[in-house]
């Protein structure tokens, strides 16, 4: 439909029909006869009884194609305006083919594969009738106590930008003709705007207090990258930002998002976030909440009655509010138009369901998941090269994750655990049962843990043996083996939304198991399943190798087996710091130097920025990850030592694989702005290259540092570079600098 016709359509709508387009409900409102609906979900949500559900604009989390066809057909028959419903869902890192959780994907530093994963998720969504997915989540996070680390791209702004761009392009496609979303693609919704990843004390939904400088420098660029990639929707965050709830924050959503970031798509609230303006103490009642949210530019009310019950009051007699309503409705209609719903409300679904073929869980999709998982796993320790294992070794696979299929993470709403290849299955694809014993070894969680999980309690594994029996079996198996592969981790229900932890560590029963096994004098390879960096300091001393598996998705077991036996050389690099202790949190690589840096040469000098009971350094730093091979870098050429703003410093290095395994290395380029009008971080990631090298192979790798990489937000929030000296560090992690040099950015008056 062309724009003129769309506007005409808008102008034909009554106030109630316009408001209806801004309402998002769940599917239960459309099941059963009207009496059932009115006395059931409608009453429960508090919708006025005269609310006409056939004015509703969109449906949340209905993902069954036949049901979607039935709902859309019924809706179009009964709605007066005949505007099709939008179907939106949380498909964050895979539909049925589940990829590694986003924090793991960010550790791959392979954004072509991240984009491909998103493209596969979109394809599977398209084939099941979903129009919009609430992904990418790009909330930068520096605090592993927060449960939603698992769905974040981690602590670094550049990686957040790369992740945001890759996922949006994967979901929507590139260069949309006139904004139209092509077949096999759906619409992306970037979230949560803004800075939801910085809650005080890492406690879920807690307040966020950030300087405008920190907000702009570190937290906003990820969302900006998603919008520049064309994201059709943005979702508001639950949190207050500097005292004002994001969902009612006019400065954030109109000045920053719409004007500065030039976003003209749909802004949807997070679940019930408009109504929560009352609980925040920001709106005195529902009418005020509706007015504040509309003034703040929120177009769609996800799953509350506030817009439905109150917007008519807010708008009556107020031309400005009516104008805001029309703008919001127009954006929703435009989204539906971009998805082609006016031409085909089913986007081809009726034909698709008739076909027996589907791309869901196809071999290609599973191969893509396997490949990305293999690149997302991070080798954190490998003492005495205990890894890779040889297939002739007798291995004791022990732990609650030895044959656990619940490794998809909290946001795999369509993932089937039965589709998952668990670790035992993966290993048995490579070695025979004679060389592999398998046992549980311990409970996954303490027995009293159930009460902390409310509605998830019934999903927790039921432990059928006593802890002592499990331990004795583990010891027997271990004593008969050459190497112990210990598969431990936090429950997926200890991670994700509502999963904040004050002590992000392995559960107590598993620590006891690890301790007992460490007394046997056997080599131990620890595999960690988690949705966040856990505190592994004590654990690391008791094992010979550590593999960070995250929640690896459908193909997890096969990917881990390939890595354990050296079929694949691990290449993941941490996208988030692993602290040594909770007391260090937040600890991240791009910190400021302070006026009293804790310099090694000062030893334990008291009056420096340090602790008296812990070192400053993390256990494993940002950008860190080991390989089965080794790499050497040498600096070949640096184009110039002085740079004008319209030039770049071009760098050529050579990287050699000096080990015996082929492998991939992620060469990281960091800069340090030595002095500026605001204090600048000791290091900032500005580029990286992931290269494959055969054993003995050498490649030339080139980087260019240009003025854009040197820009930052100054005192008045102006985004600019400043002349002066810069250091360049090139290395295999944020702490492992292998090459460094400095150059000067010249002042304009020095440009001869
Ligand atoms: C949840 C999450 C959000 C999700 C939405 C819809 O509470 O905060 O990420 O997309 O509700 O399920």
Jot down its keywords:
752 residues, alpha/beta, TIM Barrel, Rossmann fold, Immunoglobulin-like, 3 domains, eight-stranded parallel beta sheet, six-stranded mixed beta sheet, 20 helices, globular, binds alpha-D-glucopyranose
Notes on the protein architecture:
By secondary structure, the chain is α/β, with parallel strands linked by helices. It folds into 3 domains: 3-355, TIM Barrel (Alpha-Beta Barrel), CATH 3.20.20; 378-571, Glycoside hydrolase family 3 C-terminal domain (Rossmann fold, 3-Layer(aba) Sandwich); 631-750, Immunoglobulins (Immunoglobulin-like, Sandwich). Strands 9-6-5-4-3-2-1-10 form an 8-stranded parallel β-sheet. Strands 11-16-15-14-12-13 form a 6-stranded mixed β-sheet. The mean pLDDT is 96.
């Amino acid at each position: 439909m062309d724009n003129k016709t769309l506007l005409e359509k808008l102008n034909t709508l009554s106030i109630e029909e316009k408001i209806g387009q801004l309402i998002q409900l769940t599917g239960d409102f459309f099941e059963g006869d009207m009496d059932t609906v009115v006395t059931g979900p409608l009453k429960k949500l508090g919708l006025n009884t005269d609310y006409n559900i056939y004015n509703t604009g969109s449906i949340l989390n209905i993902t069954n194609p036949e049901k979607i066809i039935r709902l859309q057909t019924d809706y179009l028959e009964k709605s007066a305006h005949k505007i099709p419903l939008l179907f939106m869902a949380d498909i964050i890192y895979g539909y049925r083919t589940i990829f590694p959780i986003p924090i793991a994907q960010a550790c791959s530093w392979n954004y072509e594969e991240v984009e491909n994963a998103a493209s596969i998720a979109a394809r599977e969504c398209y084939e099941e009738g979903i129009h919009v997915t609430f992904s990418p989540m790009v909330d930068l996070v520096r605090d592993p106590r927060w449960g939603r680390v698992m769905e974040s791209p981690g602590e670094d702004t550049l990686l957040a930008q790369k992740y945001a761009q890759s996922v949006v392009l994967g979901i929507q496609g590139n260069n949309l003709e006139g904004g139209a979303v092509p077949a096999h693609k759906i619409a992306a919704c970037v979230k949560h705007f803004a800075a939801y990843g910085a809650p005080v004390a890492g406690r879920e939904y807690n307040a966020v207090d950030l300087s405008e400088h920190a907000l702009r420098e570190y937290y906003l660029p990820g969302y900006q990258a998603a919008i520049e990639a064309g994201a059709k929707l943005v979702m508001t965050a639950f949190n207050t930002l500097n005292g004002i709830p994001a969902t009612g924050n006019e400065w954030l959503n109109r000045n920053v998002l719409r004007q500065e970031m030039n976003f003209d798509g749909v802004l949807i609230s997070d679940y019930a976030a408009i109504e929560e303006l009352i609980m925040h103490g920001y709106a005195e009642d529902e009418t005020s909440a509706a007015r504040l949210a509309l003034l703040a530019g929120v177009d769609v009310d996800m799953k509350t009655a506030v817009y439905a019950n109150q917007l008519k009051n807010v708008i009556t007699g107020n031309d400005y509010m009516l104008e805001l309503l029309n703008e919001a409705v127009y954006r929703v209609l435009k989204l539906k138009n971009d998805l082609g719903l006016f031409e085909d409300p089913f986007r081809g679904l009726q034909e698709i369901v008739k076909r027996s073929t589907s791309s869901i869980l196809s071999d290609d999709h599973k191969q893509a998941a396997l490949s990305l998982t293999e690149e997302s796993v991070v080798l954190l320790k490998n003492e005495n090269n205990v890894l890779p294992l040889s297939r002739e070794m007798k291995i004791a696979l022990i732990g609650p994750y030895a044959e656990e299929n619940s490794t998809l993470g909290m946001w795999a709403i369509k993932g089937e655990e039965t589709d998952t290849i668990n670790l035992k299955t993966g290993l048995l694809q490579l070695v025979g049962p004679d060389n592999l014993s398998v046992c549980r070894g311990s409970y996954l969680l303490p027995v009293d843990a159930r009460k902390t999980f409310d509605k998830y309690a019934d999903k927790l594994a039921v432990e059928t043996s006593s802890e002592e029996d499990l331990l004795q079996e583990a010891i027997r198996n271990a004593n008969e083996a050459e190497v112990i592969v210990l598969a431990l981790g936090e429950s997926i229900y200890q991670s994700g939304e509502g999963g904040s932890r004050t002590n992000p560590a392995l559960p107590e029963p598993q620590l006891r198991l690890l301790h007992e096994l460490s007394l046997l004098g056997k080599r131990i390879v620890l595999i960690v399943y988690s949705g966040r960096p856990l505190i592994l300091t004590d654990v690391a001393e008791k094992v010979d190798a550590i593999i960070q598996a995250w929640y690896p998705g459908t193909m997890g077991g096969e990917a881990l087996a390939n890595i354990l036996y050296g079929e694949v050389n691990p290449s993941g690099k941490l996208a988030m710091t692993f602290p040594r202790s909770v007391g260090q949190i937040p600890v991240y690589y791009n910190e400021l130097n302070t006026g009293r840096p804790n310099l090694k040469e000062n030893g334990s000098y008291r009056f420096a920025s340090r602790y008296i009971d812990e070192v400053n350094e993390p256990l494993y730093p940002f950008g860190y990850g080991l390989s089965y091979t080794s790499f050497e870098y040498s600096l070949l050429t640096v184009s110039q030592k002085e740079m004008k703003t319209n030039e770049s410093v071009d760098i050529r290095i050579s990287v050699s694989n000096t080990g015996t395994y082929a492998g991939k290395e992620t060469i990281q380029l960091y800069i340090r702005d030595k002095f500026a009008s605001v204090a600048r971080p000791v290091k900032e990631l500005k580029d990286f290259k992931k290269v494959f090298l055969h054993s003995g192979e050498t490649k030339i790798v080139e980087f260019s540092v240009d003025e854009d990489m040197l820009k930052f937000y100054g005192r008045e929030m102006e985004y600019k570079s400043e002349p002066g000296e810069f250091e360049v560090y090139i290395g295999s992690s944020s702490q492992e600098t292998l090459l460094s040099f400095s150059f000067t950015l010249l002042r304009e008056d020095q440009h001869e």
